[in-house]
User: Fold these one by one.
Assistant:
Number 1:
Amino acid sequence: MKKIGVLTSGGDAPGMNAAVRAVVRKALYHGIEVAGIYHGYQGLIEGNIKDLNAGDVGDIIQRGGTILYSARCPEFKTEQGQKKAIEQLKKHGIEGLVVIGGDGSYRGALALTEKGFPCVGVPGTIDNDIPGTDYTIGFDTALNTVIESIDKIRDTATSHERTFIIEVMGRDAGDLALWAGLAGGAETIVIPEVPVDIDGLVKRLKQGHERGKKHSIIIVAEGVMSGGELAKMLKDRAEIETRVSVLGHIQRGGSPTARDRVFASRLGAKAVETLLENRGGVAIGIHNREVVDYELKETFNKEHKAELSMYTLSKELSI
Ligand code: F6P
């Protein structure tokens, strides 16, 4: 392989830049050229492609977002879109592609591989929802952003003796809510992986209050319901007054943590090694501190599992 491409796709995640840097520098180290594909699969279809040198990825390891920009691209889901993409790749002399993104991006990578163009997936999403890897790039930074917010909300919750509901992202997965709830000392965590029990929640809030708790923090994952919906349920069911904070896209921004930069560097470099071995249709991940690679297909056959022992522990610790 003489030239590879790299793109970022789907929701951006802190650490994507560190991964792009690793891909570019690792390839150049091995004497391979690299093309940056801008605006994800949309840019690929449109030929928004530029060669990158070592300097182009300088001073980005600490930056959030993605210098390659990102997009969600419905056209790429079609045969026609995928054909156009392959034509562009060939036109630019690109022989393998590193796709940094979440599961939608992985579907695109698999589609191209099945059409004979080798792609490797690097997990980049704050949701931490890709099967086969313990962590995705961006999760740690987003988690720390949520924790910072919880700490701040706790100050005002204590001062006013209020119950707060904090809605966090995560799409259909509860990881962000679960980890944030445990690390932030929340009284209750509501995640998609555990059936919602409003009566149980009300009981816990009341018991806490009777024991002298002056304030409560409830973390709700967006995949279950919105913070507003939960607030209404508590009001209707038990006359419990709450305040709601929706953290929103603030969770996607910011300088990546050291952990995300390290993961991004290791995973990006491994993606290049995989392509140099002429292997496509592969996903890269971290498992038990080791960098691993496995079939992209597996990410669609397996289910991502949240660590439910953490849910139980959080309940035990927040009595
Ligand atoms: O997948 C990352 C993510 O931030 C999810 O947590 C969230 O549900 C979604 O993207 C939001 O997407 P958009 O930025 O397109 O509104």
Note: The longest helix spans residues 139-160.
Number 2:
Amino acid sequence: MARNQFASKLGLLAATVGSAVGLGNIWRFPAETADNGGAAFLLLYIVCIAVLGIPVMLAEFALGRAGRSDSVGVFRKIAPGTKWWIVGIVSVVAPFMINAYYFVVEGWTFEYLISSVTGNLFEPIEGATTNSEIFAAHMQQYIASPWMPILATWAVIFINMFVLLGGVSKGIERLSNIMMPTLFVVLLVLCSVALSLPDAGAGVEWFLAPDFSKITFPAVISALGQAFFSLSLGMGILVTYASYYPEDARLTRTSVVVVASSLLVALLVGLVIFPAMSATGLQDQALRGTTLVFRTLPEVFALMPATGLCAILFFLLLFAAALTSTVSLLEVTVAFLVERLNLSRRAAVLWTTLPLLPLSAVCSLSFSSMEHVTIFGMTIFELLDYITSNYLLPLVAISVCIFVGWVAPRSLLRDQLSNHGRLRCRIATPVELVVRYLAPALVLLILVWNLVRNG
Ligand code: PFF
């Protein structure tokens, strides 16, 4: 059977941008920026994605397209008889774990999108008088009921299942072709509304004028972590997607467009959130993920013109971003099951998604009824996020770089970047240097730092 391929260059770009742009850009980025000093963090993040993000992404693309297999198969094909396939196994397990909690948040997004459409989100709640209390009560009421969030999570798992059953080009590519342009249009509309608010300038300045004294070692480490998370690196995702790229796709150009789009989305999100918060006098509100997106932002919307419409657009944006990312996370496991275990695509999709129903239900419950159940002082939700983001992701990224830089044939990277000599690739040498030396050294630093900091 012929391997799957993306049908068009635009489609492969949309799908890869769709994978990169996700909750990491909209939920994690503003929180990291706020925690690490505003514009100074933005600057560090830009340096990280340019210096490290592009080369590591190219290493994953090269591995996927040269190996033309799932994220375990590529290691088996390129280095048969070695144990490198174990890295592939980690890269299959990690997205599966991420999905278990990512789906819970995607479920909340879905529920909030529906409540903004029905207007429920802005209904007053008994006992809550100020806007702040109303939206805190809404979130509390929602996550405290065990069933609603689980049903919403299962609904989005079924939506993902439906997309994946459609296949690579008719499912993933088609979805991304619709969702990605929608996401950019919605962001531009929200951005122009936020920037036209009186007093928006203070938020813009905080976000864009760097205070260099805020550049600290922990901020550098956070920027590196954010770069990996937001570009979908170290997850087997880009290896799997690149294995569906046609031979004449230009990897360097693709990586630059993906990285630039991810940065653009983060910038635009910052230009919506920070000006809107300063304009509504809410700049001191909590910015941590859940609180920001599901409490502070509805509060901001309530003070903005066209409240209902702004909320619908925002949650639509968040849902589009999350959906195209979870689809990419799931595709890693689907490709693995199809190619390693010879399952049909339909069976692989079912085996990938069905176990996530109970797993994500447990994650969802860990937010409400099981809040007291902790392992190493963390809820199940926090534990999954902690292990994957802090350890598995950098571990896979470093291994891919060492594999492509030192174990695979020396010509692999250059051949892939130049499409076997058909293109001139001026950045091949710097990319090679980063992949062989800089990236493994820096990622090792992140791992050691995390270990030392967290004991
Ligand atoms: N890059 C996407 C995001 O930023 O949300 C999806 C994602 C991929 C998240 C890999 C986390 C991850 F480890």
Note: DSSP finds 19 helices and no strands in the chain.
